[in-house]
Design brief:
alpha/beta; TIM Barrel; about 230 residues
Length: about 230
């Protein structure tokens, strides 16, 4: 017998509603699907946060959104303003992108201050922060340093990628992020988790959240396999 239930896997999923071509109708359908399958959250475009909160009222699905998406190049003041607006609209989870160029430059003070600003703003209002690295552009030393910074500034999650880079969540990266992050910092995999088997595999590596667009397919397969 597996060591998980349907609810365990469903509550790992942040249903991703971020594709650039998604219409308002697409976003609303996505929220309804998230509610039907009782996932952890929706991660929705910032402008749609308020509507998502309305659609998910009374459910256990929380609303999250992106900050500094997708390249992290916004100045820190804009990232914190974006965070405050998202929380005012009802967002409880913020997936922020590090300044990728500053990571590659090695300006670690800038990177730490940037992440800290969003974390402090979020925590003041009871929201959590998942820090997106975009690992496909980084070497292992840079990933390790980011894990250290995220632990020091109090981030809640480290996250592999936006889902729009050159690659998504690899096993090697997930092992590195789990190993190099403090135990209280959780790991989110994003990009390439499209099947039940892959979800179970990343769970075994210590992942507790996954960004997914294939939510329905994954969880339909989960239901079928658990019944069998």
């Amino acid at each position: 017998m597996p060591d998980f239930t349907y609810a365990d896997l469903a509550k790992m999923i942040d249903h991703s509603l971020l594709q650039p071509t998604m219409t308002d109708d697409d976003l609303e359908r996505g929220c309804r699907l998230a509610r039907e399958y009782d996932v952890a959250s929706v991660c929705i475009k910032p402008y749609a946060v308020r509507r998502a909160v309305e659609l998910l009222a009374g459910s256990t699905v929380v609303v999250g959104t992106t900050i500094g998406f997708p390249h992290g190049g916004h100045v820190s003041e804009i990232k914190t303003a974006e965070s405050r607006r998202a929380m005012a609209d009802g967002a409880k989870e913020l997936d922020m992108v590090v300044n990728i160029g500053k990571v590659l430059t090695g300006d670690w003070k800038y990177v730490a201050d940037d992440v800290r600003a969003v974390v402090e703003a979020a925590h003041r209002d009871g929201a959590i922060v998942k820090v997106i690295f975009e690992n496909c552009f980084l070497n292992d030393a840079q990933k390790e340093h980011l894990c250290k910074i995220c632990g020091e500034v109090g981030a809640d999650f480290v996250k592999t990628s936006t889902g729009y880079g050159d690659s998504g969540a690899t096993d090697d990266d997930l092992r590195l992020m789990r190993r190099c992050s403090p135990p209280r910092v959780q790991v989110k995999a994003a990009g390439g988790v499209r099947t039940f088997d892959r979800l179970v595999a990343v769970r075994a590596l210590g992942v507790t959240r996954v960004g997914a667009t294939a939510t329905k397919a994954i969880l339909d397969e989960c239901k079928a396999k658990l019944k069998g």
